[in-house]
Amino acid sequence: EVQLVESGGGLVQAGGSLRLSCAASGFSFDDYAIGWFRQAPGKAREGVSCFSNSDGSTMYAASVKGRFTISSDNANDTVYLQMENLKPEDTAVYYCAARARFCYLTLGMDYWGKGILVTVSS
């Protein structure tokens, strides 16, 4: 079965850092793009970042560019999101998702994880 399992969330003070992990299984990881999305309280889900294992390309939302870094460990079928200089507005449930081939920061993904909470305090 397809699984995307997020880990690494939690509570952090503004200015701090967290690293989220997305462990993938049940599909051809090397042929997919893995993205991170988030949904803050009262807001719509939005794309944050994406890494394509097909061509190595990356994408970032303007709100996180320069602070977040996405990377892929193909040997372990795991994608990471290193989050630096976190802000209270980064507080959200973060979801890992996958789609074939290439990155798009839209909700049209093939597979979704269950999400993990990141809370950034002032």
Output the keywords.
122 residues; mainly beta; 7-stranded mixed sheet; 4-stranded antiparallel sheet; 52% strand; globular
The structural class is mainly beta
Distance between the termini: 40 Å
Can you summarize the main beta sheet? Answer: 7 strands, mixed
Order of helices and strands: EEEEEEEEEEE
Instruction: Please tell me how large the radius of gyration is.
Output: 13 Å
The percent range for strand residues is over 45%
Which outline best applies? globular
Question: Could you estimate the helical fraction of the residues in percent?
Answer: under 10%
What average pLDDT do the residues reach? 97
The parts where pLDDT drops under 50 for at least 5 residues are none
Could you give the count of β-strands? Answer: 11
Q: What is the tally of helical segments?
A: 0
In short:
This protein is mostly beta strands and 122 residues long. Helix content is 0%, strand content 52%. It contains no helices and 11 strands.
Blueprint of the fold:
Elements: E1 3-7, E2 10-13, E3 18-25, E4 32-39, E5 46-52, E6 58-60, E7 68-73, E8 78-83, E9 92-100, E10 111-112, E11 116-121
Description:
- With 122 residues, this protein is an all-beta fold.
- It is built from no helices and eleven strands.
- The protein has strands at residues 3-7, 10-13, 18-25, 32-39, 46-52, 58-60, 68-73, 78-83, 92-100, 111-112, 116-121.
- Strands 2, 4, 5, 6, 9, 10 and 11 form a seven-stranded mixed sheet that branches.
- Strand 7 and strand 8 (78-83) form a beta hairpin.
